[in-house]
Amino acid sequence: MELQTLTYLVVGASFALYLGIAFWARAASTSDFYVAGGGVHPVTNGMATAADWMSAASFISMAGLISNMGYGGAVFLMGWTGGYVLLAMLLAPYLRKFGKFTVPEFIGDRYYSSTARTVAVICLLIICVVYIVGQMTGVGITFARFLGVSADTGIYIGMAIVFAYAVFGGMKGITYTQVAQYIVLIVAYTIPALFISLNLTGNFIPQLGMGSDLVGTDVSLLSKLDQVVTDLGFAQYTTQSAGSTLNMVFFTISLMIGTAGLPHVIIRFFTVPKVADARYSAGWTLVFIALLYTVAPSVGSMARLNLHGTFNTNVGIVQKAEGGMGIDAAVVAAKPDLFAPEASIKYEDRPAWVARWEKTGLLKFEDKNGDGRIQYYNDKTKNEAVKAKAEAAGWKGSELTVNADIIVLANPEIAQLPNWVIALVAAGAMAAALSTAAGLLLAISSAISHDLIKRTFVPDMSEKSELMAGKISMVFAIILAGYLGLNPPGFAAATVALAFGLAASSLFPAIMMGIFTKTITDKGAIAGMIAGMFVTAFYVFAHHGIFFIKGTEYVELIGGPNSFFGLTPAAFGTVGAIVNFVVAYLVSKVSGTVPQHVQDMVESVRIPKGAGAAAAGH
Questions:
Q1: Which residues lie across from 556 on neighbouring strands?
Q2: Average pLDDT, the chain
Q3: β-strands 547-550, 400-402 pairing
Q4: What is residue 326's predicted lDDT score, i.e. its pLDDT?
Q5: CA gap 520, 587 in Å, rounded
Q6: What is the CATH code for 3-211+238-299+418-488+496-606?
Q7: Cβ of 113: how many Cβ atoms within 10 Å?
């Protein structure tokens, strides 16, 4: 069957499944809408949380980042999975025992202040809105490539799908829809990896294939990849780092505590029946996430090798007669010159997938030397030997630009796998983006309807009115998300890093101190959240070109990129968190004492006696 038709069928079937589940599990009460009635099984919740967490960034971008960064990409795996360990051990069971609907509700009650709750709502809204930009952009890219529509049209379709199952289903509908989306995305992610690992190494388990020898050789896949990338002027794949040691440590910590502070993830642990279930649920989430995250390094390394093999015939990657990429053992063993004139392919002979991705603008070719061939290497390398080889071969610079975001989506096409695998990956990518978008939208909706309208402005609102307010808030949130996807801000490339940094520097410290200390006051918590978010946002925005105007000249707010001890904006969330903790502690020292009934409440939440069904407390 033709690829486009098959893609329509597979993606259409997945959408029909999501809408059917949403209709079956539609919310009938505020408890259903906010926390799925508090009756979700830990395994089910673990699967739904994994889908909620594994966004377009995880499905589409992570393997691409690892493919580009090599070993340095491990910070994403360590940070994101480590965040769930923090959730399981330090946050989830205590928040569930507290028995509220939302994170701002916990902060408002723990810090005995409607102002603290409002500040938490503002922090939550900023985090979710920033994060959702990337999800809607991912929806647009995926629809544009696989459904043959414009990116804008793709965003409109995505908005309609999310509207249909999120507004009517609430958390209950989203939960069971996310279970289906998890199954779709994990199957879509792993099946191409199984095919590619088998073709390249003879081992169908990708995690083992990455460390195996290439078929018919005694050369390991990673050794061959190291040889190819270094010969072409790129950094060695297995030793490449993500900046200085300090930056890597701070980046990993920022991702960890940012994960633990993401409101759309935390809210999922309010949906299980018992306190103990919250911890079990976090454990199951780790298991389900690991199924994808342990495959991602394999996908990144194998896709990188296939990519170089596609554009340089001397790598030793060949198109097998029966389909899929294979190994020419003789070429692998010979280690031929990658800059030989015949090594680069003619543009007119480029694979069909290259032409398809060129239409999206995420893959670009520029014939700099006019020879009609595609030269792909690192023309910015400091390796003089590589520069000399390229010059001797008549190369005038790298002629191919490949966006890292296409690695997973294009992976089955690069490996020339069957059309049904390509269609499945399209459905998986859309499931990943839509599942996280729905979770973020629900967090936004509940913060507005429950924490602002119900708890602050209209405390005597009926349950029916609150449910309606939640659905209306969801509609406006979807419209805002769509607008930002259609008109992304100038810092869109840094939105994911910014979302994690803001969560790490604002909500995570406030939650931690709220659970494990009795001395942090309302004023301390408020000052800490504001200070932490401000310094993090300031550093990120200043780094990306926000300037003060002085006369007719622009003056940089900070001393250039990575000016604070070489830290990148993605790593600065850790600094923001430290600022939050310090400011909260100092302000609490001079702002009185915490009321005794609040201290008693903290004690009852933290001490596990009486664990079982959490107090309703709604």
A1: 547
A2: 84
A3: unpaired
A4: 86
A5: 9
A6: 1.20.1730.10
A7: 18
Alpha helices in 202-295 (DSSP H): 206-209, 221-231, 245-260, 263-266, 275-293
618: pLDDT strictly greater than 50: no
- Residues 35, 29: Cα–Cα separation, whole Å: 10
Rounded to whole angstroms, the Cα distance separating 104 from 449 reads 12
Q: How far is C-alpha 407 from the geometric centre of its chain's CA atoms?
A: 15
d(CA 54, CA 44): 15
Q: Please list the residues that pair with 548 across neighbouring strands.
A: 555
Q: Which amino acid is at 66?
A: I
Q: Which of 51, 21, 45 is nearest to 186 (CA)?
A: 51
Give dist(CA 436, CA 268) in Å, integer: 12
What is the residue type of 601? M
Does residue 547 register a pLDDT over 50?
Answer: no
- Dihedral of the alpha carbons of 204, 210, 214, 218, in degrees to the nearest 10: -120
Residue 586's CB is within 10 A of a number of other CB atoms, namely 13
Confidence band, pLDDT 50/70/90 cuts, at residue 563: low
> Residue 239: phi, psi to the nearest 5?
-125, -5
Average pLDDT over residues 346-373: 88
Measured CA to CA, the distance from residue 363 to residue 406 in angstroms comes to: 8
Q: What whole-number distance in Å separates Cα of residue 386 and Cα of residue 379?
A: 9
Q: What is the DSSP letter of 444?
A: H
**Alpha-carbon distance 618 to 605, whole Å?**
15
Q: Check residue 325 and give its pLDDT.
A: 82
Q: In 3-state terms, what secondary structure has residue 601?
A: helix
Eight-state DSSP code of residue 591: S
Model pLDDT for residues 157-214, shown as the tens digit of each residue: 888 887 877 777 777 888 888 899 899 999 999 999 999 999 999 999 999 999 999 9
Rounded to an integer, the average pLDDT of 322-328 is 79
Return d(Cα 608, Cα 606) in angstroms, integer: 6
The rounded distance, in Å, linking the Cα atoms of 372 and 388 is 21
Domain boundaries, the chain: 3-211+238-299+418-488+496-606
Look at residue 458 in the predicted model and tell me its pLDDT.
Answer: 84
The predicted-structure confidence for 109-123, as pLDDT tens digits, reads as follows 999 999 999 999 999
For residue 38, how far is the Cα from the chain centroid? 26
Output b/e per residue, 281-316; b: 16+ Cβ within 10 A.
Answer: bbbbbbebbeebbebbbbbbbbbbbbbbbbbbbbbb
Confidence of residue 609 (pLDDT cuts 50, 70, 90): low
Helix (H, G, I), strand (E, B) or coil at 317: strand
Structure tokens at 331: 């070429």
What confidence category does residue 379 fall into, taking pLDDT thresholds of 50, 70 and 90? very high
